[in-house]
Records
---
Amino acid sequence: MNAAPPHGPGLAGLPRRALVALAVFVAALVAAPGLVDDYILSVLILGLYFALVGQAWNVMTGFCGQLSLGHALYIGLGAYTAGALFVRFEISPWIGLPVAMVVAGLAGALIGFLSFRFGIRGVYFALLTIAFAEFTRILFDHWGWVGGSSGLYLPVTERTQVDLWSLRGPLWMFYYVILAAVGLAFLICRRLLNAKIGYYWLAIREDQEAAQAMGIDILRYKVLAVAVSAMMTAFGGVFYAFYYNQFYPETIFNIDKSIEILLGVIVGGIGTLFGPILGAFALAGIGEVLIWFQDLVGVRGLKLLTYGVVLMIIILAKPDGLWPWLRPLLGLGRRDRA
Amino acid sequence: MLEVRDLSKSFRGLKAVNGLGFRVEKGTIGALIGPNGAGKTTVFNLITGALRADAGQVLLDGREITGLRPDQACHAGIGRTFQVARPLAELSVEDNVIVGALRATGSVAEARRTARQVLDLLDFGREAAKPAHELTLPDRKRLEVAKALATGPRILLLDEVMAGLRPTETDRMVATFRRLNQETGLTILLIEHVMRAVMALSQSVTVINHGTLIASGTPETVVRDPAVLECYLGQEEDEAAHA
């Protein structure tokens, strides 16, 4: 009686319809570089980048319920750590990456500890996350070793040569790196959510007092949530540094960076596993359509205006996000842990 | 088992609990009763660490647990329910109980087994997949009990879990607690306004008013105590007369 019925749950307990959709989605992503031009590929890279950092942000805010409006901090720390190690000491980003993740993780743990230890919650905590990102921006603005306010530049080499060890190469190389990172992040999030730590994070999100009465050390688990989220975000920061090759404190620590991280998650479905990925792609797609529309009409600035309107419409129509709405259509339970 | 010694707590000069002492023996069911505002929930909050006592001690099996955080008190063996139910609203009933069961294990699979046992014990298995925010009031109360029970407590503190229930539901709850107490030897301390539940369940009753001890003893002796009648039952008779 081990064989799954034809329309019953298949691999990993997923219904067949969801499994097919997943397979098509993954296959399309893997095949994309051979099918689309560089422009579309760069759009996909941007979408995947937001899928990665969105998933990271979702760990802390979606799972554990601690609102962060300062995730640019961890992007910046990741970018600067791996970037400076590369520029100054020619250390490979693959060595720089774990260092960057540790730096960001420690920064997150420290911020979390300082805030939660003194009972700072909700919007006050969110304001503190902005403040820490701003402090750090000013600090880096005046830190000459990493370029100060004129930023950090990574040496650009011939873009046809693949040098994976130094993360120098053509677009498709970056594409596969970020695609792998998104896949890995998804698996990590799923693993975390279905483990004790995930249950504890959800409990804290739902009701801190009730969680504490059930034996949960809320300070410890909240600090862990921030640290894990910061580490994952730093991965995005390292990628950002090597993909764009240049960044400044003014832009990378900017609150705009923090806000664009969370938009995709809100659109896709906060607190869900697949929502951040879906949301990131949805926004990237909407952005491209709107650029096309803007060019068609010939009015500059129309994209941003319509982008805002479209976001508002989505949030009003599907306040829980697109994924919780799409999930039942794929034959998945309405409240599956997915 | 549970011993409270000389416990005091003031809020801005108002003495909510004042030199209170009582004990609940192992394997028994004790009740903490008193009129509204007597300080019963404050006593619970002091025992569970949700509030810090100004003075006094709380001992569990002879071990001092005064000043522990709520999560530490839970690990020490205190399970509690909240007067106003605090379900983990977006989670299913089963996931709510799993969170409690994870107190004693790192394995979600094992916690799920414990959770199923607890749900069966409370005759709650059929609602396992339901999101907690869709529960009716009696079921929310039941979930409170299930969450606390799943942590594997040595003593279960129940804060008005029968308030707002219909008499038949109250009787079912009473039967459940009696069975729990008899079958597993679980010690229970309950705050309750529903006197029929108190009389049916408890072996010892502690009556407080304005945070101080008025009387204690078996339910039968306590309800005949003139001081109790005056401060507590007498008041209810007055209310009944006005109604």
---
Amino acid sequence: MERHYLLGNEAIAHACLEAPVDFVSGYPGTPSSEVIDVLRLRSDRAYYIEWSVNEKVALENALAAAWCGLRALCTMKHVGLNVAADPLMTSAYTGVSGGLVIMSADDPFAHSSQNEQDSRCYAHFARVPCLDPSTIQEAHDMLIDAFTLSEEFSLPVIFRPTTRICHSKGDVELGDIIKSTKKGEFKKDPRQYVVIPAHTRVLHKKLNEKQPAIKKRLVELGYNTCSINGKKAVVASGIAATYVQELIPEGISFMKIGAYPIDEAWLSGFVRRHESVLVIEELAPEVEEQVLQVAGTVKVLGKKNGYVPYEGELSLSAVAQIMEKAGVLSENLYPAVSPVQNLPLRPPILCAGCLHRAAFYAIKKVFKDAIYPSDIGCYTLGLQLGVVDTTICMGASITVASGIAHSGEPRDIICTIGDSTFLHTGIQGLMNAVYNGADITVVILDNRITAMTGHQPNPNTGVTACGIESPPVSLDAVCRACGVTFVETVDPYDITGMTNVLRAAQSRKGVRVIIAKQQCVITARRAGVKRGRYTVDMDTCTGCGTCIRFGCPAIEFADEKARINDLCSGCAVCAQLCPAGAIVREGKK
Amino acid sequence: MKRSFDILMVGIGGQGTILASNILGEACLREGRSVKGAETHGMAQRGGSVESHIRIDGKFGPLIAPGQVDLLLSFDLLEALRYSHYLKEGGTMVVNRHLVLPTSVYMQNLEAPTEDAIIAALSRFRLCLLDADQIAQEAGSPLSQNVVMLGAASYAMPLKPESVLQSVKSLVPKKTSEINARAFELGRQAAKECSF
């Protein structure tokens, strides 16, 4: 046993090595990405590992591995589970012969997500067990137990850490690494793996029959615990349980829920011994609804009567406030304090030298009064530049663009989508747009990498998750194969070239695709690309502010003149924009 | 009933707050103490405001409540003011006097607070102000400013300076070990005059 100070996701990755895992797949998504990022680069790797093109593809791969008797892990963020929901629902029927753990990382407060959905609801819906860790140590231990549980009941298990587990750190006890030696073997069994109606009806019944034993086993497993100390009780799940444990006074009973489905008899035995029960959990009232079902005349305080919010993330101070309001704490130890007002905000922005800023600049210049559907990635930050009008889910830029076009909107419609998002779920939308004759321009922002989530490779990068060379997909050929006849590839750093291609696209009808191709500025720097910095010639600068409005963090303004700071990556776009020609390569004049 | 010493480290994505928080976590392990932490991930590279919570002797959750921070380390002057409400009564602030104005100030022509105004607003706290950029240059690399900050703050933490220095040496890239050790010492020297 060794103690380490680790990120939650690093501890989870280590647990995979201890289990050991034989097969890993997933699609990057904050806050889940570091698990595969840690596992894929280990030189002692004995397991198979891949970044898949989307979560559905990832889950189907992992499911197949588990059918072959392997221990398979599939990772994604919560909204990825929507994409993978199709195989999830029926995999509960077919079951698995190895262990299948689906890590779906939830993001209360939507720190970097489009919604706050709760993966526990999916587990409930699919009737599969769900483990919900309250600390990093528990996340580590649970992951190993999740495999055992999956094998014991021949069912996929959803493992649901939240952002505050994945991206927290703590001292963790780690076990020994075991080298995976298993080889998969597919044993044919059509009644299990071919879900025609006659088979699936039987499988559905089997799934339902497993439930009582699962509930009983989960109590024994020790992740659902309770202690009776008085007439009032607090029931809490996930990280909220940890906040409660820090605050709970003597004489108050406590129940911690970390595993679902909850055994009703066990829950009822606890709840009914109290006068009132306060239920504290993030997001959906999963536990609260169960408590209400068994409560009888016991008073239940929670989301449904306004004690606990449905939205957002809980915190120590939020939980203290809830406990005080519910009469569990006599005083709020963490009274609200107000921050200093009216400070200029510092939101995340596109990097200095980012290709997206250059592409957006040209798009806005050519397509002045247009509709700009966009997608999910770094380029969603184009919102700040006024060139992102819609974002809903992965791949929904092209589909939303064609829907708006077909609805009769007379303005030009030009949408933006990243390379990884295009390969994730964009292609189907493009095919559909061509097939149904949409009149739209699509700009694929091609930076050769999945940048937002930490620079994971994709089929467009030319390497696999493990760094093995792979044939890079041709975006041009994919678009042409979908039936697009106008496909132009252009370097967005070349503002004139980019605007010319945009103008050519604007003058045509039908689906037009522009591939704005340039390496992500961070991967370029890591790869050793040095372009030399630019500087402002103070005598020539007229202080007109054109470069400032471009919005690059490398450009500052003081004493009526622009100045370029050391964030400059040498993309030279601002030099092309300056009407006075005052921006020049450093050391040249 | 407070059982942990709570440190909040704030700055701008790319300034090295994550490495600095790892160094403190490692120092806790060296002293056989428990530690919990939380930080901003994902968007950090994109120039946004970032925060790292570190709870020395922490046994529960990773987040520190506003008004409860014992020691605030800020890598930027404006961020110190933004997070100043996290500091508890009588807490300490160690602040890099360097100010990076957000790009939004230039783009939207916002009223920007001046260095003097921020320092005046911070003066009601127990404040140790230093030029970590300058000191890091002296140590041999501008990238060592995070370690300069740890050196300066080492007086105000319940950790032995040797444990922190050892952790610096074990976590920074090997070829920068000497520069960072120097950065730690220079940071300590710079903060000698501060009242902790």
